[in-house]
Structures
1.
Amino acid sequence: MKRLRAVLEERVEIHGRGNFPTISTKLINLIRCLRQHMGSVQVEARDVRLNGGAASFVASSDDFSYADLDLIFPIQIDEESDENVEKQIFDAIRDSVFMTIRELMPDNIGKEKFDFETLKDVYIRKMIKVSTDNDKWSLFSLNNEYGRCIELKFVNKMRRQFEFSVDSFQIHLDPLLNELDECEQKKITIESMYGDVQQAMTHLHERLIDTVKPEEIRGGGLLKYCHLIIRGYKAAKPWNCRKLERYMCSRFFIDFPDLISQENKLRNYLDSHFGTSFNGATYDQWSSSGSDTDSEASTSQATTSSLLVTGQAKYDFLMLLYRVIDESTVCLMAHERNMSLNMIDRVAFQLSMQCYTPPNFSSGSSTPPRTTLFYLPPDAATWIPVI
């Protein structure tokens, strides 16, 4: 319970693009504010659940850092509802997210003048809506330049809610939202979308990798698999490891069939899960100590060794990804596989030669400058912006 309380009281940052200010607030205040605005637009969430790396951190007895922090808001949409009703509900959810962002902005900037389109361009990193027979949900990824992903998921139904057993935990937060001070006396429900919560706990404590039906995971879980391996996890079923890798590679290349989408996905994963460094200042993943972290602490000076560790982890990740694709890809022609391997090798080389530019804090903003990735296709005369 102390870990869960520390996560809910941890300060999270939503960085604005350009000269827009950084929003800094406690996670529990973000949840409360969003629930209030959802009620104002007549959309009720059945409950609120903590998911992702933060949920695994709370469930585990080990001490480790985490980058991804997901909040799930289950919502109700009647099966008989037509497309217009469904659209109205998701539009209302979108409005509640933007109202929450506007309310949490600093009071001294005249925030009432900013419309929703402006807030979307400034504070939202990714916005997705999926509506099929098996999936009906939307996602808002709040912009954070330090690799500290904050994702809000509004789910009516979702066929696949986890990648591996160690990230399948969902923690019900409702008992704590009104009276966090008395959390030690309350009971909290932890469930695992993997199916067997005890086995998932065993995998988490023993640092084992296991999943079911990897071909159903978007991207096959390939990048997360390699990330877990370099963090010291190992396969729960070593005899099935090569078969698992083949499934993951096949699904990855189905979802990302061309080099541009592959490189875009890879670079976004590196930025989102390994943090960002700038010439002596590092912005790493959330602290595993459970202590409160403010904006000053998030821009503390890093030692040279910590920079080397971060860079080495990225390089090890890329080299492991290279090996897995090289040895386990059966769905591509040889030249297609070689093109993907060359792309990974090029990204690794750029990482090893990367020069860090100090952030410009002269304007008073603690947000590092955004960068744009350009891609030069073969036999092309112009560069194409990717991200």
2.
Amino acid sequence: MIVMKAALMFPWMKMLLQQVDLINFHTVPSLIPAYNEHMGGIDLSDMLVHLYKTPAKSTRWYLPLFGYMLDLSIANSWLVYKRECGQLNQKPITLKRFRLAVAHSLKQVNKPASKKRYTPRPSQPQPDVRYDCFGHWPLHCDKRGRCNYCPKGVSRWKCQKCNVFLCLNASQECFAVYHQKI
């Protein structure tokens, strides 16, 4: 207020204030444009971290810090993944799906392999062994196995030479049909 009244009283002061304004507002230190140019990365990083923030309220100071570092590393990993997808001309998944995929993979770490309920089928014998019509004898086993010829058959009979289970009863003759070349 006092400066404005003085500028009205003394015209030379008005000119001096204009020169001071030009000096102060038009010459900016070089640090300010550099900060403004590169601050987008920090803002983007903060935005991505806070989009899906890990809830970690605790009286122990290191738990929220760990949650923040985890969020930050996942956000940075997603940015690298997105850049790689752009170079490979692939469509990247969203940050939310990426976080879910990371959580799922971390959940699977150090888990024992699931037990198989079934035993894998034995490999098929070579055609020249299968169709040679020599030494194929049915062998009765204590354990049952899936028939290698029909999809739904279960049998206790196994070919001694081919080492595969085959149905051998009055209604199904898989043993004979399996060894004949059609």
3.
Amino acid sequence: MSPLCEHCGENMKKIHQQVSVMRKEIKNLRQTLDGAVRAHRKHLMSIQAAVSKADFSGHSKKDCTSSLSAPGALEQGNIQTVPIGYISSCFSVKNGTPRQPTICGPSRAQLRIQQSVFNNPEHALVGLGQYSHVWIIFLFHKNGHQSYKAKVKPPRLNGQRVGVYSTRSPHRPNSLGLTLAKLDKIQEPSECDRPRFRFLRSPEEAGAAIRAVLSADPRSVYRRTRCRDRLFFFSLDTADITCWFGQGFAEVLEVRPVGPPGPEDPCQ
């Protein structure tokens, strides 16, 4: 084969690669556009619903139904909830967060009860310490655009689409979740101190948590199969961890503090 033909063959390979990349980008743009269109439609529907409930006198139709009893409101599907508290854990970002609670046993979280729910909030916790576990119903309040699809692609199914109700996807109607949590202790806000770790109790426990996270390989399917960059970053409690994955093993390259506690620190 002449050098000219070899050069043409190389150019054709490069063109095919560029075309493949462009097709993927177009597909991603279409998916992003479809999501934006769905979110826009939902926003318009919410505006139309709000306008339809208001009459020309400026009064809302809700005023006419405000005297409905609680059972009547429930029968019509009108459910109002008040959060009793907010949860923070040693996993502050999505990267590295285990998909199941049993993967990382040493991990801990804190549920801060809102003081405004009861006049005497400490009375609501009397007797709770007798139990080993508690059920927690929570809201995915940081889902962003709050849009959802009937079919999703769970990371562990290698791109297979299944119904959202058969998965643990947080992007679902009503954005509600349920978890079983082990009750460690109940403490008053005045008992807060400032340990080196906010949730973990010792460097040994932090090391065990890091090993548990890495043993489950928290990388996405794309990063495991297609991405050439083997570096992976995640946060655990008050530490940022840098690691890289090889063939059948993971190595921690750096562990550094993330800095002082943020404004959400309950002890601040």
4.
Amino acid sequence: MDGVGSFGAGRAGSTIDPIAFAKQPQTILRVLSWIFSLVVFASIVNEGYVNMGSERLHCVFNKNADACNYGVFVGLVGLLACSFFFLVDYKFSSISSVKDRKKAIMLEIGFSGFWAFLYFVSFCFLANQWSRTTADELPLNQGADAARAAIAFSFFSIITWAGLTVRAVQKYLLGTDMTLFTTEHMDGGAPTQPYPSNSPVGTTETTETYQSPPFTENNAAPTYQVFSVKTLCTEMCVTVYYLNVSGLQSDRHSNKKENMFWTACFCA
């Protein structure tokens, strides 16, 4: 894992190095917690019950069945929880949702802290009941080693589960690196160009271009040349008069020209 991302893990889909994962403090604490829970559970189940001249089994902890049941419960659930969270730790970097990562971290904090407290209760409860157990209740010292192992590894489990809680809190405080989701600089500086310029050294190249945007409408109204009837008649009068004066037309059309001239003058 690259160590950059959200809650102490890399980006989603990043490759997982098994060796680096095994060397992490959280992984080591998880494996130790699994072993300690297994010892507490197996010690009470295998040698935590003895019979004294009858078929009925009695708990080695002052014949208190609640003490043995509590130790078995804490050890078994702790064993299963370690297996579950070990899988979550291994697959944590493949979780793409930041909200899901946050939920997983919060679940680990709550469970690890609560189970450290339960192991503290287990240590105190088993140690208290063992101190009240007399030698007459355990002929030939049966189950003494199992009882001591359950008490000792209950104490060790307090340390490992508390360490897991601290590690989970540290991951939660790391939060999410928001620079993975933003492209602007946080200090307000101008963003750099994403592509390098191919211009030679020492030359200044302007990047701003000014051009009209496409598909723009020309809001200027079109202009039209308007001719009035009076103006048109006046121009006709002048034109006919010019033709009469210059003599460009033949005499055959003189009457016609004269009529056109007076018609134009009348219209004007």
